[in-house]
Write a structure and sequence with these properties.
alpha/beta, Glutaredoxin, 5-stranded mixed β-sheet
């Protein structure tokens, strides 16, 4: 019986935490344009699978975007190596680039940042 209660509690925790999680999707131009038109808070994460800074950013972004404050944030991931047209579109010179938008307005940008508090500040700029 204890096992069943523990399993039920874990299920509730997973359901409730995912209700607050930001949506993370691969970059899609049409979906990005729709999010901008809807004045949604947006984060574009330009990353590479081989990048150690990107790997360090990933758990930070996962923690932050699971917070209720960022539940409306839409996170678009861009592969630095295979989506060069998108990388150019955002004038990004490096992987590990984070770009925040509130609708169509860019509200902030960072490159190589792995400080949780400054990344949180960047995400908050999109929520205004």
């Amino acid at each position: 019986m204890r096992f069943v209660r523990a399993l039920f509690g874990l299920t509730l925790l997973l359901i409730s935490s995912s209700a607050f999680a930001a949506e993370t999707v691969p970059f899609d131009a049409a979906r990005f344009a729709a999010a901008q038109r809807a004045d949604e808070p947006i984060l574009v994460h330009i990353r590479a699978s081989w990048c150690p800074t990107c790997a360090a950013q990933k758990p930070i972004l996962e923690r932050l975007t699971a917070e209720p404050d960022f539940k409306n944030l839409v996170v678009f991931t861009v592969d630095f190596d295979t989506q060069k047209d998108v990388v150019r579109r955002f004038h990004a010179d490096m992987q590990s680039t984070l770009i925040a938008f509130k609708g169509a307005t860019e509200t902030g940008r960072s490159v190589g940042d792995t400080d949780e508090s400054s990344i949180a500040k960047l995400l908050r700029s999109a929520e205004r």
